[in-house]
Amino acid sequence: MNDFQSQENVTGHFDRKANEYFDWYHLQNLEGHSFRIRKTRCMDMLAPLPNGSLVADIGCGPATMVKELLDRGFNVTGTDIAPHMIEECKVRFGNDPHATFLVSTADRIPLSDASQDAVTAMGLLEYINDEPAALREFHRILKPGGLAVLTYPHYWSPSRAWNRFTHLLALPILLLLGKRRNASGVKHREYHLASTLKMIRDTGFMADDVVFYNFKLGLRPLDSWFPKTFMHIAEALERFCRTPVLRRIGTGFIVLAKKT
Question: Is 15 in contact with 38 (CB distance < 8 Å)?
Answer without folding.
Answer: no
